[in-house]
Amino acid sequence: MKKSELLNWLHEEYQQWELLLVAIGQKRMNQSGVSGEWSMRDIVAHLTSWQQRLVSHLKAAMDGQPEPPPPWPGELKTEDEINAWIYETNRKKVVRQVLEDAHQVY
Span 51-66, mean pLDDT? Predict the structure, then answer.
């Protein structure tokens, strides 16, 4: 796959993601039960946190820099521990901020 093809694919997928979020609507973003007790806002914040980590790794690799440390405390080792930390870190953010964070990562 060429770089331009990858970028086009990412852009198309992001547009579909944005359409999904618009269809859900900001008023329903806080409704729990989308995945367990998590709301769509929680899921967007969760995905954004992992994407931020990926972007920081890609940027470091492009710049010839060492792998950056994770944003979570170093003593967290399991995915469940990290996911709980991500949830707690983002749970008080309003929908608008969560969506803005997600857009900035894109």
Answer: 95
